[in-house]
Amino acid sequence: MRLWGIAAALVLGLPLSAQAQSVEQVFQNFGLIGVWANACSQPANLEVGNSRAIYALSSSDGIMLTYDYGTKYAPAVYTIVSAQQVGRDRVSYVEERVHNKTRVNVTVHKANDRITVISSVAQDGKVFVENGRIVSNGQPAPPQTRCP
User: pLDDT by residue (tens digit) across 57-71?
Assistant: First the structure.
């Protein structure tokens, strides 16, 4: 590990091994594997603002992410192509949509078994979420809770 990598890990309070972790290790260590929703007891339904994010191990030792918006919509399926923990309570990753290979850089904040997207930027530079706010409407990105 380079000296700057060690220094960055120490400043962020990360274990020194965090620099060399696989995508699966980052997601496992950060505790993202599972189903997350705005309201776990309700079905996924985009019209009422209850989507589900499903982070799952894939057969290729990676992570698949599926956004479930309810029965009226096709799910959006992504492969996580890279990930790193960027603080005690944050992870950044690049998701690549399976059907068209578009990529989005995402940073997620996690606290008390709730996650919130704090940044989401497409590969073409289009910003969806900035500083925890949805750019299109200025509203805070809704937190999601881990579902049982």
Answer: 987 668 999 999 999
